[in-house]
Design goal:
This protein is α/β, with parallel strands linked by helices. The chain folds into two domains: about 1-100, Formyl transferase, N-terminal domain (Rossmann fold, 3-Layer(aba) Sandwich); about 110-205, Formyl transferase, N-terminal domain (Rossmann fold, 3-Layer(aba) Sandwich), CATH 3.40.50.170. The protein has six helices and nine strands. The strands form two sheets. Strands 3-2-1-4-5-6-7 form a seven-stranded mixed β-sheet, covered by helices on one side. It has a two-stranded antiparallel ribbon with strand order 8-9. Helix 1 packs parallel to helix 6 and helix 5 (about 125-135) packs across helix 6 (about 170-190). The protein binds 5-O-phosphono-beta-D-ribofuranosylamine. 5-O-phosphono-beta-D-ribofuranosylamine binds next to helix 1, strand 5 and helix 6.
Amino acid sequence: MIKIAVFASGGGSNLQALIDAQETGLFRAKIGLVFSNVADAKALERAENHRIESVAITSKGYSGSREDYDQEVLQLCQAKKIDLICLAGYMRILTPALIRPFPWKIMNIHPALLPKFGGEGMYGHHVHEAVIKAKEKESGATVHFVTEGVDAGPIIVQGNVKVFPNDTPQSLAEKVLKVEHLIYPEAVRLFCDGKIKVSDGRVKILP
Ligand code: GRF
């Protein structure tokens, strides 16, 4: 059975969508760990409510380097025999110390249609503000593999929403979040069914 770790720094609504999908049997995998860099993240509470092991290592004021931090996280994931890491609102950029040992085994969800509106500084409300400012007619969400470039890894699944002239960053965020909750479990299902192949830096979904 594939063992998943979900990393979250905040509310964890995407974590909840993954837990719900697991409970309805959408994918054959077990969320065996919820990890956070924020000790009072609501995501940890959600894990406890579903009797999922949760661990927090506070990143704020952490004494070592970013690599040292990721090394600790790596050891945790290896000790728990994690096969897939799902970043779900995890507000840290991973270092190679964690990325390299998990090739094509770390996914992230981003609240825009990558490669548009991604990269450093493009998170949360910044993304939706930029989409509205650019007068885009469409936005959405992307699940992609994590590589060493921020938001630059191969795209697994995308979902679209329409952007209307009266949308605000808040209203857009709400619409996009609903799509996130559909596509993240779908991406995990594809992974668990062995349907994702990466070649030449692109994802191919097998029939
Ligand atoms: C989502 O919008 C996700 O795309 C982004 O962070 C947000 C997390 O929301 N990476 P939640 O904590 O899952 O509710």
